[in-house]
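$ run holo --ligand "uridine-5'-diphosphate-xylopyranose" --emit tokens
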Amino acid sequence: MKITVIGCGYVGLVTAAGLAEAGHWVTGVDRDSLKINKLRHQEAPFYEKDLEPLLRRHLKTGRLTFTTSLALGVANAQIIFIAVGTPALSDGSVDLSQIETVAAQIGPQLHGYTVIVNKSTVPVGTTRRLETIIAQHTCRPVPFDVVSNPEFLREGNAVYDFINPDRIVIGTDSPQARRIMEELYRPFLKKKVPLIQTNPETAELIKYASNAFLATKISFINEIAELCEAVGADLPTVARGMGLDHRIGPEFLSAGPGYGGSCFPKDTKALIHLARSYGKQLSIVEATDAVNTRIQKAMLAKIIRILGPPAGKTIAVYGLAFKANTDDLRESPALSIIEGLLQAGARIRVHDPKALAAGRKVLGDKVTYCADEYTAAQDASAVVITTEWEQYRRLDLDLLKTKMAQAIIIDLRNLLTPEQVRAHGFLYEGIGRGSKQKVG
Ligand code: UDX
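-- output --
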């Protein structure tokens, strides 16, 4: 099928490359000419595992092309995906200006029946609103449908998630649009991926409710971690014991410095805002959001409690990205920890395998950027692990110790085994690791 994806950000680009891989002919459109130039030269504008090889392959097969011209991109497309940014406004509501502008631009370009699919995370009711905007901007009466088709990709695993989705959600009242969407996703449906066909409102809410539920799991386990420290229990073992109950499941039970990223903080707030606008209160989601803010602040207090006053000390921070396998810094807990430590007078040396360049744009010359963990640890009074990069599990602890002024590791991701680290002569603190006894 001929498909156009408007917006070559993280969601749009993975969708475009994934649909090309599924056998479709895809045009990616973005108003940012620098980005389009990079893409034409087979370069992803951000780091995402496995994305570049996919881009390269389908730029070669010709299944994937890129343009800055919306008119060109949209011409003859059977399906137009909208995947532009929907940032948060200060009151927690969602800024829909980009998506509305794109809808208005699509209108005049429609000539025959077209399915317009919204991939951006938007408040309930937006799909129908887009329908009205597009209809107002067509040159003559032309048939089209707008479908809600939320995405559930995780950054860092996005290509895998696109190719192996847990479910496909299609929200539309139009039987014709449903049939076309089924044809689009046939390669996935053949693999028995569950399909949910529903109305646009339900589809839109599935996305928000899923993200809010996952965020709730994280805030829940972060509070249990605090209790573990108080009562002398071991959080990873508690989480494992909980997760083996198949009704709970093992995932999203890793305690840490609070959730970040472009989705959970924004989407929980947007859902709270949406509910309030209907006179409803989502107290659990509100608590999830409040706990996350509190946990992030508590991390700084924890570091200071272990280390003493940071003024004049050098601290090595391992990880800038909000999670592993991405260079995305949006709402990264590492950033608020670094800012707090800088304000308290510490010198910061940072390492991140992928996000140093992105870090420079945000932190400028306030911190020292280091190419490896051991350089970052030079003269440090503590190493603070903020992102769960796999390589931090395999630190050469003896070498690390020779570099540091004080042998302290504060592991905010529970990557290391306390007994092992302590056996190397370190003072070690994880999250929720209250047990003084050996655990297995
Ligand atoms: C999330 C959803 O998982 C995805 O389905 C949706 O499409 C977009 O939002 P993403 O933001 O990429 O994806 O990252 P995710 O892996 O979900 O992690 C979000 C945050 O939660 C990160 O800061 C991560 O470190 C944190 N997290 C995750 C925990 O602290 N503990 C966990 O157990 C899991």
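-- notes --
Residues 151-155, 211, 214, 218, 252-254, 256, 259-261, 263-264, 322-323 surround uridine-5'-diphosphate-xylopyranose (CB under 6 Å).
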